[in-house]
Specification:
heterodimer, A: alpha+beta, OB fold (Dihydrolipoamide Acetyltransferase, E2P), five-stranded mixed barrel, 7 strands, 35% strand, elongated, B: mainly alpha, 6 helices
Chain lengths: 155, 204
């Protein structure tokens, strides 16, 4: 749904949990170059990016806001590290929801002549879910790659 | 900093005032419905013209209240963005839309109002702000009231509701009174915070 960038230094990192692929942070607090702070609230970060998120890290941070969650999908640091990470898990979940519920609705209609309401709702919802999640990932990729070659200033 | 469309601050005070009045009216009608139900001993066969008047009044006020409250939600969400709150999830239109999306309407409206509170308290660093616990309380009461109301309505459709339908109707009305009053307070607080923030921007 949207992307943005923060130029600054990580001041505080509060990890809620870490899983195999990604981490969830309660908050990441940035000190901006103008001296003010900006908090990035409960966010989902893929581990290739999360591995670098430590207090004192200075650079440009790439942020995304999806339809129901937010996260950090990329960093470019003053020491030259460039990391991008945003997976397709949400899109895959939406696709699986679509396929499974399409099957349930089709089979149920064929056998009983009636479709379960929950399956119909999930089937309909999975379509915009897929489109929106995919849109967010594509937008985030474009944003990060459009900034290729950028090197944050050390000062 | 953020690559998002610019929003302009619009006056939402009239919508906020009307939304609050209608929420108070909704609470008053729910209280009247409870009183009438208790007076007839929760007997569905003793429903009289007064119950019908209150019931029709509740429907009319609910529709008016929904329209005005959703209008205020749209304006206040857009105003939070205009005051500098970036990276809010969704859009002002979606703040309304969530109420009509099955399953998502069980939690997304709560998250939207919670984020609007934070964004109004401190637009520049809203994710670092805290939200009032009253928002969660309002949302749980609203859900409980709606679930009880739905059960009551379905029993009524079965033509033979008995006392069970009356009890669920009573629970629904009991939940909707604090839900309406708390939401009226939340609207007032968010509106006041936004007006203060706007004043600060104007004076800066």
């Amino acid at each position: 749904m949207g992307t943005s960038v923060i130029d600054g230094t990580i001041e505080e990192v509060v990890l809620r949990r870490r899983r195999k692929l990604g981490s969830v942070y309660d908050r990441v607090v940035f000190r901006l170059d103008d001296g003010s702070t900006k908090t990035w609230g409960k966010s989902v970060v893929w581990n290739q990016v999360a591995d670098h998120l430590k207090p004192g890290l200075k650079g440009r941070f790439y942020l995304y806001t999806a339809i129901d969650h937010r996260g950090i999908h990329g960093i470019r640091t003053i020491d030259g590290r460039e990391v991008f990470g945003l997976g397709k898990v949400n899109e895959i979940v939406a696709l699986v929801l679509f396929v499974v519920n399409a099957l349930v609705v089709a089979l149920s209609t064929a056998t009983t002549g009636d479709a379960p309401l929950l399956s119909v709702i999930l089937l309909v919802l999975s379509i915009p879910m897929y489109i929106l999640y995919r849109g967010t990932r594509v937008q985030a990729e474009r944003q990060f790659h459009a900034d290729a070659g950028f090197r944050p200033a050390a000062a | 900093m953020a690559e998002q469309p610019a929003w302009t601050y619009g006056d939402a005070s009239a919508a906020a005032a009307w939304a609050r009045r209608l929420l108070w009216a909704d609470a008053a009608l729910s209280a009247a419905a409870i009183a009438l139900a208790l007076l007839r001993g929760l007997d569905p066969w003793r429903v009289g013209p007064a119950d019908a008047v209150i019931g029709i009044g509740q429907i009319i006020v609910f529709i008016a209240c929904a329209f005005v409250t959703l209008r205020w939600l749209y304006l206040a969400n857009a105003n939070a963005r205009a005051l500098g709150a970036t990276d809010l999830m969704g859009s002002p239109g979606l703040a309304i839309g969530w109420f009509f999306v099955p399953l998502a309407n069980l939690f997304m409206p709560y998250m939207t109002v919670r984020d609007m509170w934070k964004a109004s308290a401190n637009p520049r660093d809203w994710q670092g702000a805290s939200a009032s616990g009253a928002i969660l309380l309002w949302w749980l009461l609203w859900l409980a009231s709606n679930i009880a109301g739905t059960v009551s309505f379905r029993l009524w459709l079965e033509k033979d509701p008995g006392r069970t339908g009356e009890v669920f109707s009573l629970i629904s009305n009991l939940g909707s009174i604090p839900a309406a009053l708390i939401f009226a307070w939340i609207i007032g607080r968010i509106q006041a915070m936004q007006e203060n923030a706007r004043l600060k921007v104007a004076l800066a």
